[in-house]
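2024-03-11 09:14:02 DEBUG pipeline.ingest accepted 1 chain
2024-03-11 09:14:02 DEBUG pipeline.ingest length=341
2024-03-11 09:14:03 DEBUG pipeline.predict start
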Amino acid sequence: MTDILAQIAQHQADIAAAEAPNAEALEAFRIQYLGTKGLVKTLMGEMKNVPNEQKREFGQILNAFKLAAEERFETLKAALESNTEFSFDYDISLPGDPLPLGSRHPISMVRNRIVDIFKRLGFAVAEGPEIEDDWHNFGALNLPEDHPARDMQDTFYISQDPAWLLRTHTSNVQIREMEKGKLPIRLIMPGKVYRNETISARAHCFFHQVEGLYVAENVSFADLKQTLYFFVKEMFGQDVKVRFRPSYFPFTEPSAEMDISCLICGGKGCNVCKHTGWVEILGCGMVHPNVLQNCGIDPNKYTGFAFGMGIERITMLKYQVKDLRLFSENDVRFLRQFTGA
């Protein structure tokens, strides 16, 4: 025990004389004396070799040694922190470097604007899965397997039997909402859709859509037209010209396409409007009775209208962007133009 006491006395002298000019030296001190394999732990292990009548005295000496090491560590730590607190090698009063601010993507901005406009008309927002089964994407929408209109919406199939695919429109959300049977329905459905198309300035293999659905008693085509008139005026201004053209969609009857005067060329003709001066922005119509029946809704009691538009097309017109591919290329030079928006 005499040898151990001599060692403790020497260690106490070393502890009292220890210095820590930097964080590395302070950590080395902690590991040497207070670490899991440090001197304090090692000396505590010698307790088993001390005679019973001397254990109390030896324990007091060890506790004093441990306290001395801990106090010295805290003293060195406080001294190091006080020395480094104001040891800046630069002027902290100088203003900081400005951080570059990003912005919302133009597609997101237009999507939010569309949602805000229709919310003012009482439309709520509904969303659904992007991976869909054949029934909700085609079958329930009056598009059986052998229907030629399916060729207009060639998509990417994940599984053929049973058929699972990437949805070609957000109409699948319309079906899922009608199947719930909670009437009346007044909803818009924004989301991403996919089609197997050649990528060009006017088309892409994926894009974003907003569809709308209103099902209740005594809903007419006049309700549809006035709803869309209001939307166009709010989105593009009071001076924009509007026209409806008869069209065909399997899930609506009668059906129409809605055009507005091209805002990019002012009606003079460009590649976006195919040199006609008019741009189609959406398709619409009265919900087909077969679609209502497929969803368990009585077409003799309820009627409804539906519409769908591509957000990219609306964004191109609103911000006069001539190439749809710019929205997905993540070119910072393009995106920076919307920082202030």
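2024-03-11 09:14:41 DEBUG pipeline.report Residues 289 and 299 are 5 Å apart (CA to CA).
2024-03-11 09:14:41 DEBUG pipeline.predict end
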